[in-house]
Design a protein that fits this description.
The complex is a heterodimer of chains A (137) and B (191). Chain A is α+β, with helices and mostly antiparallel strands and 137 residues long. Chain A is built from three helices and five strands, in the order E-E-H-E-E-E-H-H. Chain B is of the alpha+beta class and 191 residues long. In chain B, 52% of the residues lie in helices and 15% in strands. In chain B, strands 1-2-4-3 form a four-stranded antiparallel beta sheet, with helices on one face. The chains are: A alpha+beta (137), B alpha+beta (191).
Chain lengths: 137, 191
Amino acid sequence: MTIYSVFIINKAGGLIYNKEFAEGLAKLSTNEYLVLAGTFHGVHAITSRISPVPNSTGIEMLQADTFKLHCFQTATGTKFLLAADPNHQNVDAALRRVYEVYADYVMKNPFYTPEMPIRAELFDMGLQRLIKQLNSV
Amino acid sequence: MASGTGTRARTAGDDIWKTRVEKINAELFTMTYGSLVAQLVKDYEDYSEVNKQLEKMGYNIGVRLIEDFLAKTNVGKCADFKETAETISKVGFKMFLGFSPAVANWSADGKEFSLLLEENPLAEFVELPEDAAAELSYSNILCGVLRGALEMVLMQVECSFVSDVLRGDDTTELRVKLVKFLEEEVPMGDD
């Protein structure tokens, strides 16, 4: 049960953070990551509109052969994406813990401007620790 | 039905306050805030300007605080403004200030309410000088915090103190008025 990567997308659809946590993953250029985030943001918006059930949230999980992608959107509009192996059971719980680390090391940093790319070492370290802990379970 | 959500919110708030919140010394908190206000008064020399600055600082805190609040409490979207008020009082205030102000004085259209603060940790041991008592809203930072936090969850509100024991009134009452619900900005396709 491994977690492959984490993405954080701001309210406007811009990628503010991405990190890989496993070896051997396909390498993308920075631009490709930005496009990926923007595309996902668009798809998320579309899915919430085309839902046959009114008042639906956007796409929450996308599953493929080799991975599954979970999305958690906070009430403030920030999206957390987690790509994990298809057999991973607790991606939602993992996403909540990532949100907690974000609330601590990113939002509580007075020098961080909200909606801007995240450049906080403490956040990297905290996230690294969390993912290591989750991957070793 | 209203009491149902109220008690659920209260137990959630108490729970989080007891287990998931790190505590600091109350005196340190009161003195830090006090020294902040005193410094602002000295710097700006104009009480209405100090009020404005406090509100701005509170706004900055609020936009960040809401993420911590949402991450720790995991509450879903509130069904209506009344539920928002209950959540602010029983979970929010409880989590961050350790007590739960009473929600009262609802307006007829349900868009305004008051929080009655029986205790105010920010203003413990504080006595305002005569000229300040007329103009200074000592705990104005709370107004900013509420405005900032609620704006992040798409509610535009106006908050102000209608009465304050520091200014000689009998009660401390914080009025919250819902201006409008904000629409999420859907960016138009840009390429």
